[in-house]
Each structure stands twice: as structure tokens, then as C-alpha cells.
Amino acid sequence: MSDLGPFSVDPNNPPGYRNNKPEMPETDWITSLSDSLESHLAALCSSRTRAFVALILFALVCFLPGFNSIPPVDRDEARFAQASKQMIESGDYVDIRFQDETRYKKPVGIYWLQAASVLVTGQDADAPIWTYRIPSLIGSLLSVGLTFLIGMRMGSVRSGFLAGLGMASAILLGVEARLAKTDAMLLATILAVQWLLWELYDLRSGLSKGKGALLWAALALGVLIKGPIILMVSSLTLIVLSIRERSIAWLKGSGWKYGLPIFLLITLPWFIAIGIKTDWAFYFDSIGKDMMAKVASGKESHGAPPGTYLGASIGTFWPISVFFILSVVWIWKQRRQRTIFFALAWIVPSWIIFEIVPTKLPHYVLPALPAMAILMAETLEARATSWASLWGRIVALLIPVAAIILGLGAPIGLIVIEGIINPAAFGLGLVASGLGLLSYSVLSRGRVMAAFILGCLTAPVLYLSLHGTIFPEMRSVWLSNQLQASVNLVKPCESIEVASAGYSEPSLVFLLGTDTLLTDGAGAAKFIKEAGCRLAIVEKQQQPAFIEGLGERKDDIEQAATVEGYKLNGGKWQTFGLYRYKM
């Protein structure tokens, strides 16, 4: 054999060959990681039970950080929890009140559930806020599980798992899981109804009696929790599907002959009782003042133009939103498929209504999130989109950008607001940022399934940092907590009456007690001069009126403590003095 030289080509071993055999290229670590993640996903989804258990455990990891450490959040959560608290205190489970005022905006369902959760834990009305949040946690877990079930029935176990994984990771559902409100449990009832509507629409053989009863019971519970919202979502879905089928014959199998009596049996007793008890004022307030006001104009400074939800959902539905945006073209092309059309019939009509209504809050469009997650999962399964295209790479930047902003921006915000350096939060933020960047790199290689898994794994790391370590340490924004702690520190006796002038947040009433007097400076002066063990919380701007109202008794009163903090509702720093009789 002649000397081929260092730059010569051996005819028996051309480039890419060794010993006359093709030489396998070395696999880089990103490819290996992607292969490993997809292999584990396939193994996990080979069993429905294993996939479901893994999904619920993942959801708990996402939902539990901060669940029992974040103080009562103003204003909706504190109002709901306080009204439930007063039900336990009074033993009246028909009327709904916040202190002496009626609270006739929503039906009674969530108040019953919150009161039951407190009592089941073995505590009384003074139980901590986390006991009132248990129905929201359960509702969120049910929503994840039902999304898995619907996705599995419409596609495959893997489709259901991916949709459920996205739901558990979504920012909005994670927030609702930690708030003692209606929306998480309402979503669970909507999903139960939509699952059974899909069964009815797909099988055409009618529901079994058990499933039919469940359909109508879920519909009734949804109405008891938040009135007509569940009826709107399910009815619009039915109308669109019936227009497509040019028939309503498929609805005969819904079991309405026995289902409607079940629905009425669950809903009518309370609706009649509250009507009689309030001389029908409940309906005037809930329908006339609350619902119609929201439809007519932006209520409580929550007005926004149509299209707001499209923009906001990029953040509130993260990380689902990123992959859903990249799925839109494929979804539109496949819109005539039975599963795709059902999901679109679920999303589009309700979304249009929500966009048209002037009053807008992020959680209003929550009922559409599971259907979006299912459509996204179907697209991932089809692998029909050019995820690694230039457009795909630009949109995918939202994954690391959100992770970096939330993961590192929040600890920096803690330093700016509180002067606290939290090493754990910075460490978790770095991990979340790294996972976000890794998800982007993997997606850029076209390995979308692995990229989605990594994007979802970013979520619990972020939530552990945000909800678990940062939010509880934001002392300045938890004004009611600070005031409660100061009251306990300086109160002259164990059983004390408190008045608050210039600060009327519902969380203060929840923490200090139903009898807390919300008043102005003059009212606080009158209150503290009366007999009894009393303490007055007076905001700085109310202090002149308070001092003037004390008159000749001002020399008997002392300022026992000062509290400063940032009031989120209104966006301003406030200073408070705590006043008592000199000891």
C-alpha cells in the first residue's frame, strides 16, 4: 500500500466510514437529553394509571408552594373567606354576608364548600386562610385530572397527559389553586360537563344512567358556584355542534328526563330559600347590580377593550400559550376533524362573549384553557408544525424570557421593596432560567415534545421561588398581616375590639374578626372613647380628624405602634398609628 499522506483519501475507507463500515456520528447531549425525555414519556404513558398518578403529583408540586404561607389576598379572596367564616359563626348557611352588608353577587356553592373544608380540618371560624383555600386546590387538581381524561378520550393517553401537564404548569390555574374563590372549582364542574358532552357527541349511543346523572349534577353544582357561566359555556358548545350536525337528535341520550329533576333538586331549594329570606333582593343584586353591570360597562375599574384576553393569555396561560401559538395553523387546517371541531366549539363562542363584555379579569377565560391545552397536545402528537422555523424560534423565546423575568426579576424586586436578599430564590431563579433556555435550545433542534416537557418542568421551580419564598416575605404589601401582628403585640388585654380608620381592606376584617369597625378618623375617636378594651388603627391622613375627635381625652390616648406598607389596591404607601389608652 502506498503512503496516502495526511490529506489523502483511503479508497477503502472514504469519509464517514471506518473499516469499510458507516461511521455513526456522535450524539450531542441535547439529542441524548431529548431522547431520554421522550423515552420516559412513552414509558409513563404506557399505563393510564401511572400517567394519571404522575400528573396529580406534578400538579401538587406546582400548586402547594405558598398555599399555607401566603396571607389572605385582597379583595376577592378575603371577601369570600370572610363570608364563609360568618356562615360558620352564625350557623346561617342560607344568607351570604360580609359583616353587616349583604353579599349577593354569587350563589352559595363556594361558601358551603369553604365552610365544610374548615370544619373537616377540625377547626372553627378562626381557622387560617389555607383551610378556606382547600376547595380551590381540590378544584384545580380535578381540573388537571379531567383535562387528562378528556384529552385521552379525544386522542391518546399521551395527548391527555401532555394537556394535563400544561394545565398543571399554567400560571393562571396555579394562582387560582391558591385563592379561596369560585373559579378553580367552577372549572372542575365545567370540565365534568364538557367531558360528558364529548362522550355524548362522539359515541352517539347515549350516556349511561350514571354518566347522565353526573352530567346534570355537575351542571347543577356549577350553577350553585357561579350562576349562569357553566350554562353559557356548555350551551354555546352544544349550539355550535348542533349547527354543524344540522340536528339536535344526538342530545336525546343526555338523560334529560331524569337529569333535569336532579338539576332542580340540587339547585332549587337554596334559590327559593334565599329569595324568601331576602324578599327576592338576592336576584336584584346578583343579576341586576352585578352581572348586568359587568355586561353593560367595565365594573370596578376592570374595563378593557375587545382583544385584551388574546394579549393577556400569552402570560396567564404560559407555558401553554407559547406552544398553542405555534399550533394555530395546524389546528385551523384540521378544524373539520371531529376532535378539533369540538374543542373549537368549546373555545371560540365563549371567548368571543368574554371579549365583548366590557368588564375583564384574567380568570374569566379560564374555562377555555383546557380546550387550548388539548388542541396543543394534539398538535404535539401530530408533529405537524415546523417548530424549528424562524417564526417558531421567535415565539419560543417566550419560554426563557418569562422564566428569566420571573425567576430573577422577582428576587431583585424583593431586594428593592424589602431590602431582603433571598439566596434560595436566586438559586431557584437561576435553575428556572436554565431550564427555560434549555427548552428553547431543544425546540430549536425540532425536538418539540422534549422542549414542552422542559418548559413545563420550569413551572414548579418558578412557583417554588415565587409563591414559596418571595411572596410570603413581601411584608410591605401584606399590610393587614402587619397590622394584625402589631395589634397582637400592643393590645392591652386578650379580648379586644378594634376600629380601623382609612383602611378598609377585607383581609383586615378576616384577620382581626367580624366585629372590626371600618370607619374614618372621627369615628375611630368616638369608638376608642367608649367603654371597653379597645384599639384604633388610624391611617396618617385620618389622624388630624382622629386627634380632633378625641377632644379633652387626647392626653389619655397614646400611639403604641407605627406600621408602614404598600397598599396594592390603590397603589400607594401608607402609614398607620395604633392608638390605645395609656397603660
Determine the mean pLDDT. Answer: 91
Q: Give the neighbour order of strands across the main sheet.
A: 6-5-7-9-8
| Spans where pLDDT lies below 50 across 5 or more residues | 1-9
- Tell me about the largest β-sheet: 5 strands, mixed
| Separation, N- and C-terminal Cα atoms | 109 Å
Total count of helical runs of at least 4 residues: 25
Using DSSP, what is the number of strands? 9
- Based on Cα principal axes, name the global outline: globular
Structural class: alpha/beta
Residue share in β-strands: 5-15%
Radius of gyration over all CA atoms, rounded: 28 Å
Helix content: 55-70%
Description:
Helices cover 62% and strands 7% of the residues. It contains 25 helices and 9 strands. Helix 8 packs antiparallel against helix 9 (209-226) and helix 10 (229-245) packs across helix 16.
Give the helices and strands, then pairings:
Blueprint: E1 17-18, E2 21-22, H1 29-44, H2 48-63, H3 76-90, E3 97-98, E4 101-102, H4 109-120, H5 129-154, H6 157-169, H7 171-177, H8 183-203, H9 209-226, H10 229-245, H11 256-277, H12 281-296, H13 308-316, H14 320-325, H15 328-333, H16 338-356, H17 369-382, H18 390-396, H19 398-418, H20 423-444, H21 448-470, H22 479-490, E5 497-501, H23 506-512, E6 517-519, H24 521-529, E7 534-539, H25 543-550, E8 557-567, E9 572-581
Parallel strand pairs: 5-6, 5-7
Antiparallel strand pairs: 1-2, 3-4, 7-9, 8-9
Helix pairs in contact: 1-21, 2-5, 2-6, 2-21, 3-4, 3-23, 4-5, 5-6, 5-7, 5-8, 5-17, 6-17, 6-21, 8-9, 8-10, 9-11, 10-16, 16-17, 19-20, 19-21, 20-21, 22-23, 24-25
